[in-house]
Amino acid sequence: MENDIRVLITKKKVEEKIQQMADRINADYQGKQLHLIGVLRGSVFFVCELAKRLTIPVTIDFMSVASYGDGTQSGGVVHMIKDLEDPLEGKEVLLVEDIIDSGRTLYYLMKLLKERQPASLKLAALLDKPERRVRPVKVDYTGFEIPDEFVVGYGLDYAQKYRNLPFIGVVEDV
Ligand code: IMP
Ligand code: MG
Q1: Alpha carbon of 21 to ligand 2 centroid (Å)
Q2: What is the pLDDT of residues 69-127, one digit of tens each?
């Protein structure tokens, strides 16, 4: 069954924002090499669009975690499903996430990655719902702050659907 989806942020706006984020990252890491970490599956589209716009040398790794809950709420207990393939020690690491909601997933991930002793660890998130935060998380590069609505597209899903939408949309009938 299809859902009613209203456009919240157009493809053009998302792409302009990713370019601005890339410009800042290129400037901040000038002369350095950056190790990007994408969190499967939602951040894949964002990582690719961001990485294509980076002019500094970049490596990319992926991990997968699950935070149990129902379709639109994350649960609080975060489990590792797939770990990184490469060590982080001594690397300039940028964790790339699609969205920060309660902050539980990123709070857990940042703590876990910090223990692996990267030279630096920063966080980029395409979307942020600050109203929903229950765990403190410092975001170094934020794309858009959005209201407390359930969004899809650009990697974000509703029951695994709509990740491939080239814009950010609100599911009206959840
Ligand atoms: P948190 O742990 O509550 O911050 O949740 C983070 C994860 O929940 C994200 O990586 C998404 O997978 C999912 N999520 C949170 N809000 C949304 C949304 O509006 N649409 C789709 N997925 C979401
Ligand atoms: Mg999800």
Answers
A1: 23
A2: 555 555 667 889 999 999 999 999 999 999 999 999 999 999 999 999 999 999 999 99
Taking the CA of residue 150 as reference, the ligand 1 atom at the shortest distance is 19
pTM assigned to the model: 0.94
Catalytic machinery residues: 101
Ligand 1 pocket: which of 9, 62, 99, 172 to mutate (most atoms <8 Å of CB)?
Answer: 99
Q: For domain 12-149, which architecture applies?
A: 3-Layer(aba) Sandwich (3.40)
Residues in contact with 73: Cβ distance below 8 Å, sequence separation at least 6, in sequence order: none
The Cα 96–Cα 38 span in angstroms is 5
> Which numbered ligand comes closest to the C-alpha of 126?
1
Nearest atom of ligand 1 to the alpha carbon of 67 = 2
Largest CA distance in the chain: 50
CB 88 within 8 A of CB 35: yes
Residue of 29, 17, 135, 6 lying closest to 74 (CA atoms):
135
- Residue nearest atom 5 in ligand 1 by C-alpha distance: 101
| pLDDT value of residue 117 | 98
